[in-house]
TrEMBL record:
<dbReference type="GO" id="GO:0004601">
    <property type="term" value="F:peroxidase activity"/>
</dbReference>
<dbReference type="Pfam" id="PF20628">
    <property type="entry name" value="Dyp_perox_C"/>
</dbReference>
<protein>
    <submittedName>
        <fullName>Dyp-type peroxidase</fullName>
    </submittedName>
</protein>
<keyword id="KW-0560">Oxidoreductase</keyword>
<dbReference type="GO" id="GO:0046872">
    <property type="term" value="F:metal ion binding"/>
</dbReference>
<keyword id="KW-0575">Peroxidase</keyword>
<keyword id="KW-0408">Iron</keyword>
<dbReference type="InterPro" id="IPR006314">
    <property type="entry name" value="Dyp_peroxidase"/>
</dbReference>
<dbReference type="GO" id="GO:0005829">
    <property type="term" value="C:cytosol"/>
</dbReference>
<dbReference type="InterPro" id="IPR048328">
    <property type="entry name" value="Dyp_perox_C"/>
</dbReference>
<dbReference type="InterPro" id="IPR048327">
    <property type="entry name" value="Dyp_perox_N"/>
</dbReference>
<dbReference type="InterPro" id="IPR011008">
    <property type="entry name" value="Dimeric_a/b-barrel"/>
</dbReference>
<feature type="domain" description="Dyp-type peroxidase N-terminal">
    <location>
        <begin position="14"/>
        <end position="140"/>
    </location>
</feature>
<dbReference type="Pfam" id="PF04261">
    <property type="entry name" value="Dyp_perox_N"/>
</dbReference>
<comment type="similarity">
    <text>Belongs to the DyP-type peroxidase family.</text>
</comment>
<dbReference type="GO" id="GO:0020037">
    <property type="term" value="F:heme binding"/>
</dbReference>
<keyword id="KW-0479">Metal-binding</keyword>
């Protein structure tokens, strides 16, 4: 990536930025809806260049995700092997809800105005072919902390491990070069969280609050930390990472404070297993204690196809 040119379309590993907009849409039943969506997605790279050229140093990027319910209609292509609607996860106490969403636009840059301009032009092009389900504007909070006060994203892969963790390879011919995306919008009980001592908060998260040092896992059979429950291994003991690009969001005036979770993965089952462990527990019945203070309002799964697939959608 060069400072002289915009970030490539569909770069799921685009840099973390100071501002992001998470836009979830459904495709309407209007006669021209699918045609309009296809042509807009096919030219998403051009639209991004129109905006990003205004400040190449702002690291503007947009990643498009397509949901299971419209994949066939919008792309006309074979489905990625694991693509399916977000499955609600019901634990003994909490539920990861499943909510509608056909298209995701993960818009981010160092400047809020660039994100705003891109979203405005995008929705102008899509017109009545879509309906906005959720629009969340996130921001960087100090040294990449969430509003609970902890550093977020420490476990992200780095270097060569990034593409190996987030880009589908030859094991799934229909999805090569793409990535599965899961989004959840969480709101926090800040009053309840602040009532806890720092040591209690640290035991729930699995890291120290001030200096972000990883804590030892709880003994077997005891309630595990959020960090431990989100560490996923396969049957061979191989650990699998995902890329998180979470952002805090909130409004002091309305009293709403939250975290927008967005996870990119080469293997959808990895994120789904994380959610099973969080909501059902590991062992079963011992849920992630972070859920005592964080409630999911949404839950949707998408697939981000490669830039070449998007560009070819308007070729018919």
């Amino acid at each position: 990536m060069s400072g002289r040119v915009p970030i490539e379309s569909q770069r799921v590993d685009a840099p973390l930025t100071c501002s992001a907009t998470f836009l979830v849409l459904t495709v309407t039943d209007s006669p021209e809806a699918v045609k309009t969506v296809r042509s807009t997605l096919a030219d998403i790279d051009g639209l991004a260049k129109n905006v990003s050229i205004r400040d190449l140093g702002a690291s503007f990027a947009c990643t498009v995700g397509i949901g299971s319910d419209v994949w066939d209609r919008v792309t006309g292509l074979p489905r990625p092997a694991e693509l399916h609607p977000f499955p609600a996860v019901k634990g003994a106490k909490y539920t990861a809800v499943s909510t509608p969403g056909d298209l995701l636009f993960h818009i981010r840059s160092e400047r809020r105005d660039l994100n705003f301009e891109f979203e405005k032009q995008l929705l102008d092009l899509l017109g009545d072919s879509v309906k906005v389900v959720d629009e969340t504007v996130g921001f960087r909070y100090f040294d990449v902390r969430d509003l609970l006060g902890f550093v977020d994203g420490t476990a992200n892969p780095v270097g060569p491990a990034v593409p190996a963790s987030i880009l589908v390879a030859e094991e799934d011919a229909a999805g090569v070069g793409g990535s599965y995306i899961v989004v959840q919008k969480y709101v926090h009980d800040m009053k309840g969280w602040k009532a806890l001592k720092a040591e209690q908060q640290e035991a729930i998260i699995g890291r120290t609050k001030l200096d972000n040092v990883e804590l030892n896992d709880a003994p077997s059979g005891q309630q595990a930390s959020h960090k431990t429950l989100n560490t996923i291994e396969d049957e061979n003991g191989v650990e699998h990472d995902i890329l998180r690009d979470n952002m805090p969001f909130g409004s002091s005036g309305s009293g709403q404070f939250g975290t927008y979770f967005i996870g990119y993965s080469r293997r959808l089952w990895v994120i789904e297993k994380m959610l099973q462990r969080m909501y059902i527990g590991e062992p079963a019945g011992l849920h992630d204690r972070l859920l005592d203070y964080s409630t999911p309002l949404t839950g949707t799964t998408f697939f981000a196809p490669s830039a070449s697939i998007l560009a070819g959608l308007d070729s018919d």
